[in-house]
Amino acid sequence: MIEETLKKTVIAIVGLLLLMGALGWAFQKELVAAAEWVANHLGFPGIALVILIGDSFVLPFPPDSMLVVVSRSHMAANWWLYVFGIGAVSAWAGIQGYFIGRWLEHFPTLHRVFGRFRDEHGPQLRKYGFWWVVLGATTPLPFSVTTWTAGMLQLPLTHVAAACLFRIPRFFIYYGVIHAGLGLFS
Question: Membrane-crossing residues (predicted)?
Answer without folding.
Answer: 6-27, 39-59, 79-100, 128-148, 160-185
